[in-house]
Write a structure and sequence with these properties.
Blueprint: H1 2-28, E1 35-38, E2 49-52, H2 54-60, E3 66-69, E4 79-84, E5 89-93, H3 95-105
Antiparallel strand pairs: 1-2, 3-5, 4-5
Helix pairs in contact: 1-3
C-alpha cells in the first residue's frame, strides 16, 4: 500500500516538470511544434523522453489520474492503457495509485 503511494507521488513529480514545459511552450513555441517531455512513470531515476504537442499533452491529462509513459515503462499492476501512440502510452492509474494521483494533481 505504501509503495503505491510512493510510486504515485514519483509520477506526480514528473507531471509537474512537464507542466512547467507546457507553460513555457505556450509562451515561446508554435502550438503545432512537438516538444520533449519526461516519461511520467514511477521510476524516480527515469530519464526517458517522448515527444508530443502541447495539445496532445494536455488532452492526455484531462483526467487527473492519467499519465503518459514510454511503452516499456507501463506497469499493469498499477495502471491500464487508455490510449496508444507511436512514442508513448496514456495510462490510467488504478486503485490507491489513482487516488493519490488525483490528490497530488489538486
Amino acid at each position: 500500500m505504501v509503495d503505491a503511494v510512493r510510486l504515485a507521488k514519483n509520477e506526480s513529480v514528473f507531471r509537474r516538470v512537464n507542466e512547467s514545459v507546457v507553460q513555457l511552450a505556450e509562451r515561446f513555441f508554435d502550438a503545432a511544434e512537438r516538444l520533449d517531455f519526461l516519461c511520467e512513470c514511477a521510476n524516480v531515476r527515469c530519464t526517458e523522453r517522448f515527444s508530443a504537442t502541447v495539445g496532445e499533452y494536455e488532452e492526455a491529462h484531462v483526467e487527473r489520474d492519467q499519465f503518459i509513459v514510454v511503452p516499456a515503462h507501463f506497469d499493469p499492476a498499477l495502471e491500464r492503457v487508455v490510449a496508444e501512440h507511436a512514442e508513448y502510452l496514456i495510462v490510467e492509474k488504478l486503485g490507491l495509485a489513482g487516488e493519490v494521483a488525483e490528490d497530488e494533481a489538486g
